[in-house]
Structure formats: structure tokens, C-alpha cells
């Protein structure tokens, strides 16, 4: 996915350690920040809470991330890198996947990113200057899904792929919502039904475009 740095002109940058111990420390700090922000929102999150969640000294956090905005930007970059890698991995084998396999791959991808997606949404909603970035974030996800669909079915027109990507993204979100409701009147079989529905939708899209199932 396309990377996007913070818009603040005076913003300092994160320290990128070259040695493994430092890299592991940064990874732990980012993971802790992601969890806290997803739970409490960006505005309510403090650097002290992030350090405590990571089991680190506050000075260690400030050493790598001079302020909360720098930390937020690093989390956004981490999401872009990971999401891009996951989409690239699917794209490389999309032409060999059956519709059922492609359906599972796409739905599982957002499942893998779900916790980070919650963090990114909390970040974008918590920073007024990134209101336009929220729309761009959704567009980027739809573009990547559409690209994957075209890798699987080159006969698919761009507009068709973009429409299908919007539908698939909503289905991906629905899986997250249903997962939270399991045991609260919703049975696990509902998730299976959603996957089947998505697979049938893709089968029709590809069949209409003249691609194999």
C-alpha cells in the first residue's frame, strides 16, 4: 500500500535501530502502542501508558519516539508495510487460486490485520488534521483488493473490480463485527455463511467477466 508520512512540518522522526535488540524493543513498543490506542483511542492514550504496557522505561520510549505524533506515524507506516506485504503475497499466486481459495485469502487477510486496522482507525479519527487521510485509507484498501481481483481475473474491467472491491471490503468488516458477537446470540456458523456468500458473489463476478472459477 502507498505509504503516508505525518503532515506535521515540525515533526521529529522515529529512531530506527540497526541492531536486533533495538529492533525488538521498537517492535514491542509499537505493539503496546497499537493495543492501547485500539482500546482507548488516540487522544486518551498517554506515552506513560504505552511504556507501561510494553514493560519499558518511559525514557526508552522517548528515545525511539520523541512524541506521540511520531509514534502514531510509525504505527501508520507499520500498517502500510504489513498490509502491502500481505496483498503482494496473494497477488503473486492469485492466478493459481480457485475462487474459494481467493475468498479465504482475502477474508483472512483482513482478519490478520484486524487489530492493526482498529488502531489505524482510532488514530485517523483522533487526529483532526488527518480527516482526509481517513478517506484515502479506505480508497487504498479498495484499490489493493481490486488489483488482486484483476490479478485473478485479467478480463475484469477496472470499474467492475472497484465495485467488487467495495463489496468485499464491507464483507471483510462484517466478519470482524460478527466475530465480536459470537456467543452473544450469534453462532460461529454465521461466519461460514458469510464466507460462502462472498465466494458465490466472486464466482458470479468472474463468470460474468469470462474467467474460470
Summarize the structure.
By secondary structure, this protein is an all-alpha fold. The chain has helices at residues 20-40, 47-54, 58-64, 68-93, 99-126, 131-152, 158-181, 189-209.
Q: Explain this structure to me?
A:
With 213 residues, the chain is mostly helical. It folds into 2 domains: 17-66, Homeodomain-like (Arc Repressor Mutant, subunit A, Orthogonal Bundle); 76-209, Tetracycline Repressor, domain 2, CATH 1.10.357. Helix content is 74%, strand content 0%. It contains 8 helices and no strands. It has helices spanning 20-40, 47-54, 58-64, 68-93, 99-126, 131-152, 158-181, 189-209. Helix 1 (20-40) packs across helix 2, helix 1 crosses helix 5 (99-126) and helix 4 runs parallel beside helix 6 (131-152). The longest helix has 28 residues, at 99-126. Mean pLDDT is 86; it is low at 2-10.
- SS field, number of helical segments: 8
Strand portion: under 5%
CATH topology of the largest domain: Tetracycline Repressor, domain 2
CATH architecture of the largest domain, by name, is Orthogonal Bundle
Structural class: mainly alpha
Describe the oligomeric state of these chains in a short phrase. Answer: single chain
Classify the helix fraction into a percent range: over 70%
Tell me, rounded to a whole number, the average pLDDT: 86
Amino acid at each position: 500500500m502507498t505509504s503516508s508520512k505525518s503532515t506535521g512540518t515540525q515533526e521529529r522522526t522515529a529512531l530506527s535501530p540497526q541492531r536486533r535488540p533495538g529492533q525488538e524493543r521498537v517492535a514491542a513498543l509499537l505493539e503496546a502502542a497499537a493495543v492501547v490506542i485500539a482500546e482507548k483511542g488516540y487522544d486518551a492514550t498517554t506515552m506513560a501508558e504505552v511504556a507501561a504496557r510494553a514493560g519499558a522505561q518511559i525514557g526508552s520510549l522517548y528515545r525511539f519516539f520523541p512524541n506521540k505524533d511520531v509514534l502514531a506515524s510509525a504505527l501508520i507506516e507499520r500498517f502500510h508495510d504489513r498490509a502491502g506485504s500481505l496483498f503482494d503475497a496473494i497477488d503473486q499466486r492469485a492466478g493459481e487460486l480457485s475462487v474459494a481459495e481467493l475468498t479465504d485469502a482475502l477474508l483472512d487477510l483482513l482478519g490478520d490485520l484486524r487489530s492493526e486496522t482498529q488502531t489505524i482507525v482510532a488514530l485517523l479519527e483522533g487526529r483532526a488534521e488527518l480527516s482526509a487521510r481517513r478517506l484515502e485509507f479506505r480508497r487504498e484498501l479498495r484499490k489493493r483488493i481490486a488489483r488482486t481481483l484483476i490479478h485473478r481475473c485479467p478480463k475484469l474491467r477496472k470499474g467492475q473490480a472497484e465495485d467488487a472491491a467495495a463489496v468485499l471490503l464491507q464483507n471483510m468488516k462484517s466478519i470482524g463485527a460478527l466475530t465480536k458477537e459470537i456467543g452473544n446470540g450469534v453462532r460461529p456458523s454465521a461466519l461460514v455463511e458469510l464466507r460462502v456468500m462472498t465466494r458465490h458473489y466472486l464466482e458470479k463476478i468472474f463468470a460474468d467477466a469470462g474467467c474460470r472459477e
